[in-house]
Structures are given as structure tokens and as C-alpha cells.
Design goal:
The complex is a heterotetramer of chains A (93), B (114), C (97) and D (315). Chain C is mainly α. Chain C contains 3 helices and no strands. Chain C has one domain. The N and C termini of chain C lie far apart (61 Å). Chain D is mainly α. Chain D contains 12 helices and no strands. Chain D is globular and about 65 Å long. In chain D, 52% of the residues are buried. The chains are: A mainly alpha (93), B mainly alpha (114), C mainly alpha (97), D mainly alpha (315).
Chain lengths: 93, 114, 97, 315
């Protein structure tokens, strides 16, 4: 069973890696932000699988912290990019 | 090769990568990224010292772990100060470059009309 | 009993992996940012949900199990809102350009 | 074992590849997103080293809060991506730098390979005195008891960083609030996210702090999660950033180090040593100090992310 959990963690990490190759390169910022989202879900899944397989304790809290912060990259981007991009602000000056 | 040694080798490689980025990347923000990368590489090398100090029923020596935790927080504080400096430079000159020749050009309005 | 639990875990986690793979395939194949966003945030969240489901019977305590469910719920929330935020940014850029 | 080894090698390769991306990516924004991904992968590596406390710190601060800081900066500096204005290194010096860095990395790798399998360890001593602190988590014991002085000074560093950031403000803004001068419309999706996330996150943050006495967690990690919640509430414009001259804010910033230092001095008077805790009373004292540290961290990190004051102070 341990091997199965580790192998699935490996497969998920591999799909994350393939996805990263595709989206980190862009073309747009949206694609790149998806990378943060992708590693959020895939990373948490493999984190939990590895923790159960290797018997590391207290890992749920690490995953919980990561899950809480999963949307922060996108939020920070929207927050900082909005004033420069929104047409009404750009034209208003 | 144990997983600890492997992690240590990754740490060594990260230090090399970070050092290269710190020297070769001209943009200040990229330098901050590279510096953080280098720092985390050092933390990892220290982390395997912790892992190799597993004893007394613990899976890793707690003293290096505590120091790495302290280090991560201090690295964040330093990054925040550095980012604030870069943003201030950008506000004053309209550029975010360490090349003083570029500062003399008039701000191109990138910062808005502050 | 443990065989049943193992079987349950294998089926659920295996299905979860399938959705992760499906999400990545969507990421690779879909032509524009919005549909890639769709593939990513739907399939991967389902995949994580199934992995969590498969790990539930193995958790050490009720609190740990509750945390696992909370993790999934939070990632669901993050995926949904991030998709909204990024999607809107894409659209705004599209009309402004 | 072999599956685990394969997984470790795969993970190591992935970490290295993402790190290389953050260095060599064509644009600053792409590099920054790469750094966020890298931070999350690092917490996986820390789990593999069985350093769960560090993994939690890396997840909350290294990836989460640093990610907000750097992505915010990268998005704002977008207008300043000055291709051609930079003094780039010539090809030859680039090569020399690369050689130097490879040598440094190789030397470090050599040190790593030469390490003995069973290194020197302070783990036995840490465990031996653990009952005296009343704690169950040796990492917390190192942070707040054995090496308390380090941790206290580190809190001082955080305060100094805030002073440094604030002092970058223009004179007329001194004492005012950080953030953009113009009130922006709140993004409804972001407000929705913050409204649900913040209560849950506050719960998790306090939980992480509380279990830190006996399990992975502690003041840094719990405080960082609380800080992240304040950051998301401010980003969603559900609340304004406070004026930097506000007395409560300044009090909260220094509460952690001040209480810590006071406890250290009290130890010198009552327990026979600077930062010594009275026997039998160690755990309550530690939790008391930690509670103020959580408060200070939860206030300091958002102030560092928010940056210098950008508005004139209101009366």
C-alpha cells in the first residue's frame, strides 16, 4: 500500500511538472498564474500522499496552511495589476 | 544515496543558481528572487545536517530546524525591505534599474501621476 | 477489513490521479487561456477531492479527518475564486487591448 | 524503498528545474510565479526531511506571504521592465560568473557528500530537558527556551525591518497609511474569498499556534497564517490599512519583543538566569510570551507587505 501511495504521489507530481512546462512559459500572465493554482492542488495532493506513506506526523496542518494560501498569488496579482490595467483609471489621468 | 543527501545536493545546486542570478541578472527584483533562492539552498544544506542528527527518537535534530525557521522569517524581512527600496526607486526615477545612467532620463509615467 | 479499506483507498486515489492527468491533458490541448483555466480548476479539484476521500479512512484521528475535508473545501474555494479573478483579468485585458 | 527513491529523485529534479526557471525566465513576472511554485515544492522537500515545523514555516511565509510581496511588486514594476536600459554583463564575464557559481555549488556538494551518516546532534540534550519546559515539541523548546535570545533578537529584526520600510516614505506621508492613495473599488470575488477565508484562517492560525507546544506548529507559523488573513482582508478592501502613527499598531508591533525581553529580565531576577524560566512555571510563561509573539508577527508581516505610508496622515 505504501508503494501505491508513493507511486500515485509521483504520478501526480509528474503531471504537475508537465503542466508547469506548458504554462510557466505563458503566453499571458493568466497562464502563469495557473501554474500557482496547479501546484497548489497537485502539491497538496502529493504532500498528503507522501506524508501518509512515510508516516510523517502533523502534515495536515502544512496542507491546511497551503490550502489557505492557495489563492493568494492570484489575489495579489489582481490587486496590484488592476489600477494600471483598468481602462477608466488609465484614461482618467 | 539517501533522500537527505539528495536534498543536500539540491541545496548546493540552488546556492550556485542563486549566486549566478544575483550577479548576472541586472534587474533588482530578479536579484531579490535569486538571493532568496540562494538562502533557501543554504537552509536545505543545513536541513540535512538536522536530518543526519536524527537521534533520541527524533527524526531530525531540532536545533538546526529552529535556526532555519528563524532564518526563513529574517529572509522574509530582508526581502520586504529590499522590495520597498526597489519600489521607491521606481517611484522616484520611473525606472527600476541599478544603472545610474538610466535614472537621468525623465520618468516615463510608469508610476502614474503621483 | 483492512483489505476493504485498502481497496477503497486504491479505487478513490486511482480515480483522483485520473482527474489530475485529465486536467493536465486539458492544459496541454486547449487552445485559449480561459478554457485552460476551466480544465485546470475543475479537474484538479476533483482529483484532490478523490485523493482526500481515499486517505480519509487512514487518518489518525477524527480531527485529522476533519482537517482533510477542510483542506479540500479550502482548495475548492481557492480554485473557484482564483479562476474568477484570473478569468476576469484575461477578459479585461482582451477588451482593453 | 525504490519507489521512494524514484520519487525523491523526481522531486529533486523538479525543484531544480523550477529554481532554474526563476533565474533564467525571460520576464520578471514569470520568474516570480516560478518562485511561488518553488516555495511550495520546498515544503514538500522539508516533509521528506521530516522537518514538519520548517515545512509549515516555508508554506506560510516562504511561499505564501513572500509570494504576495513579490507578485505584487512584479505586477507593479511591469511598466519598468527596461529591456536595453540595463547594463548587462558581457558574454565573457557571464561565463566567468557561471564557472564561479558551478565551483561554489560543487564545493558545497562535496561537503554534503562528505558528511558522516550519523552527524553530531543536539537532539538527545533537547529531549533530555524537554520535560522541564513542559513542552512536547522540541523545536518550540529550542525557539522559546534553549535559544530564546536568538528568537527575541529575530523579533527585533522584524521591527527594524518595519522601521526601515516606513522610513522610505516621503516626509509628508509620515504617519499616514500605506496603500494606494485612491480608493479602489473592491473586487467582489476577492471580497467573497476574504469573507470566507478570514474566519477559517484565524481559526487555523490560532490552532497552529496552540498545538505548537506539543506538535508541529508554533508562534511563527500561527502568526504568519493570521498575518496572511489580514493581508487578504486588506487586499479585498474590506478594511483599510491602518495609519502607521496609530498607537495600537505600534504597540502591537513591539509587544512581542518587549514581552519577551521582559520575561528574560524577569528570569534573571526570579529564576537565576537571563531567559531562565522558573521550574514548574515554564510552560505558562512560554505560552504567554508566544501569545504576544503571535500578535506581533500577525501585525508585522502585513505591514511589511503593505510597504511605506503613501497617504497623508489624518488627524
Amino acid at each position: 500500500m505504501t508503494e501505491f501511495l508513493l507511486a500515485t504521489a509521483g504520478v501526480i507530481l509528474f503531471t504537475v511538472a508537465v503542466g508547469l512546462v506548458r504554462i510557466l512559459g505563458g503566453p499571458g500572465d493568466a497562464d502563469r498564474l495557473m501554474a500557482a493554482q496547479l501546484i497548489g492542488t497537485g502539491g497538496i495532493a502529493s504532500l498528503l500522499l507522501i506524508a501518509v506513506a512515510t508516516g510523517a506526523h502533523g502534515v495536515e496542518d502544512v496542507a491546511l496552511g497551503l490550502a489557505l494560501l492557495a489563492a493568494f498569488a492570484s489575489a495579489a496579482f489582481v490587486n496590484s495589476a488592476a489600477p494600471a490595467e483598468a481602462p477608466d483609471v488609465a484614461d482618467g489621468r | 544515496m539517501t533522500s537527505a543527501t539528495l536534498a543536500g545536493l539540491v541545496g548546493a545546486a540552488l546556492v550556485g543558481l542563486g549566486l549566478y542570478g544575483l550577479i548576472a541578472n541586472p534587474q533588482p527584483l530578479r536579484k531579490i528572487l535569486a538571493f532568496n533562492l540562494m538562502g533557501s539552498g543554504i537552509f536545505l544544506v543545513f536541513g540535512i545536517v538536522a536530518r543526519k542528527g536524527a537521534a533520541a527518537g527524533l527524526q531530525a535534530d531540532p536545533v538546526p530546524q529552529a535556526m532555519v525557521i528563524t532564518g526563513i522569517v529574517v529572509a522574509f524581512a530582508a526581502s520586504a525591505l529590499a522590495v520597498a527600496l526597489v519600489l521607491r526607486l521606481f517611484e522616484d526615477t520611473g525606472q527600476a534599474t541599478l544603472n545610474p545612467d538610466a535614472w537621468t532620463k525623465p520618468p516615463d509615467g510608469g508610476a502614474g501621476a503621483e | 477489513m483492512s483489505l476493504v479499506v485498502d481497496l477503497f483507498s486504491i479505487v478513490a486515489i486511482g480515480a483522483g490521479v485520473f482527474f489530475f492527468v485529465a486536467g493536465t491533458v486539458g492544459l496541454l490541448r486547449f487552445p485559449d487561456a480561459l478554457s485552460r483555466l476551466h480544465a485546470l480548476t475543475k479537474a484538479d479539484n476533483l482529483g484532490l477531492g478523490l485523493v482526500v476521500l481515499g486517505l480519509l479512512p487512514r487518518s489518525e484521528s477524527l480531527l485529522a479527518a476533519l482537517k482533510l475535508v477542510a483542506i479540500w473545501a479550502l482548495v475548492q474555494l481557492a480554485g473557484a475564486t482564483a479562476a474568477q479573478l484570473v478569468g476576469r483579468a484575461v477578459r479585461r485585458k482582451g477588451t482593453a487591448a | 524503498m525504490s519507489v521512494l527513491q524514484a520519487l525523491d529523485i523526481g522531486l529533486a529534479f523538479l525543484v531544480f528545474a523550477v529554481a532554474a526557471w526563476t533565474i533564467f525566465a525571460p520576464g520578471a513576472f514569470a520568474a516570480t510565479v516560478g518562485y511561488v511554485v518553488y516555495g511550495l515544492l520546498l515544503s514538500l522537500v522539508w516533509i521528506r526531511l521530516f522537518a514538519v515545523d520548517v515545512a509549515l514555516t516555508e508554506a506560510a511565509i516562504g511561499s505564501g506571504v513572500t509570494g504576495v510581496l513579490l507578485i505584487g511588486a512584479a505586477a507593479r514594476l511591469r511598466a519598468a521592465e527596461t529591456a536595453g536600459r540595463e547594463k548587462s554583463l558581457s558574454g565573457l564575464s557571464r561565463l566567468l560568473v557561471a564557472v564561479l557559481c558551478v565551483l561554489v555549488a560543487l564545493a558545497l556538494a562535496g561537503v554534503v557528500l562528505l558528511l558522516p551518516d550519523q552527524g553530531p546532534s543536539l537532539a538527545p540534550q533537547s529531549m533530555q530537558h524537554l520535560p522541564e519546559t513542559g513542552l512536547g515539541n522540541p523545536v518550540t523548546a529550542v525557539l522559546i527556551a534553549y535559544r530564546a535570545f536568538d528568537t527575541m533578537l529575530e523579533k527585533v529584526v522584524l521591527v527594524l525591518a518595519v522601521v526601515g520600510v516606513w522610513s522610505l516614505a516621503a516626509d509628508r506621508y509620515w504617519g499616514g497609511a500605506p496603500g494606494e492613495a485612491r480608493a479602489q473599488r473592491p473586487e467582489p470575488t476577492l471580497a467573497f474569498l476574504a469573507q470566507i477565508l478570514a474566519p477559517l484562517g484565524i481559526l487555523v492560525g490560532i490552532h497552529v499556534f496552540w498545538v505548537g507546544a506539543d506538535a508541529p506548529g508554533g508562534a511563527f507559523q500561527g502568526g504568519a497564517i493570521l498575518a496572511a488573513m489580514w493581508i487578504i482582508v486588506m487586499m479585498a478592501r474590506l478594511t483599510e490599512a491602518p495609519q502607521t502613527k496609530a498607537f495600537w499598531l505600534r504597540l502591537a508591533l513591539v509587544a512581542g519583543p518587549v514581552v519577551f525581553l521582559a520575561a528574560g529580565v524577569a528570569g534573571a531576577i526570579f529564576a537565576g538566569g537571563f531567559f531562565a524560566y522558573p521550574p514548574g512555571f515554564a510552560k505558562p510563561a512560554i505560552l504567554f510570551i508566544e501569545a504576544f509573539m503571535v500578535l506581533s508577527i500577525a501585525v508585522t508581516l502585513p505591514m511589511l507587505v503593505a510597504g511605506p505610508p503613501r497617504r497623508e496622515p489624518r488627524r
